[in-house]
Amino acid sequence: MKSALSNLIFLLLMLVTMPTAFSASVSKPDNSSVVTSLADKTCINMPIEEEIEGSALACPGINGYKLNLYDENMRQTINVISPTGQEYPLKLWHVITRHFSSIDKTVEWRVTRLNDSSQPVAVIIRMNAQIQKDINVPPEKKSWLAVVKLGQKEICVTAKIPVSSVAINKARTEADNSKSKPCLGETDY
Questions:
Q1: Residues 118-155: pLDDT tens digits?
Q2: Residues of 160-176 as b/e, b for ≥16 C-beta within 10 angstroms?
Q3: What is the pLDDT of residues 58-88, one digit of tens each?
Q4: Pair 183, 156: CB distance under 8 Å
Q5: What is the pTM of this model?
Q6: In sequence order, what DSSP letters do the residues of 39-100 get, joined into one string?
């Protein structure tokens, strides 16, 4: 009887500790952030068509990704260049806001790390706008965080988050889960 009780206790301890021991040996993905700059000193001027009044900058990203920043008619947008060289226009001036806009000089890349490799899964871009509803009233300033998923076949904006004290945490969560999210359409705002 004592032997049967000992065996039962041993089996119960094995059942309780085995999942813990097993999960410790399996690596889980770990997400973190990497920040890059869109400042003039880190980017290279690109030629643009003569009839367009504006500018274009080619900026470095991470893991083979690059960002092209376009400024036209007091509105800005970004095109993502994949490691294979494919260009994905984000059309931020249609998806986030149609008003006069600017993009912050830093972007946050969300990266999944597994064992010794890392893979960018999304990028978070802050967009600022001046909304002029009435020319007799000063423009209203608004800002959003645009979450851009970096899929193998699709790169697009999947979330538009109004800036607040908790916005960056929401944006990081959205970015980490953006793989299965649909692309946003154009806005009327």
A1: 899 999 999 999 998 888 999 999 999 999 999 988 99
A2: bbeeeeebbeebbebbb
A3: 999 999 999 999 999 899 999 999 999 999 9
A4: yes
A5: 0.82
A6: -TTTSEE----TTS-EEEEEEE-STT-EEEEEEETTEEEEEEE-TTS-EEE--HHHHT-SSE
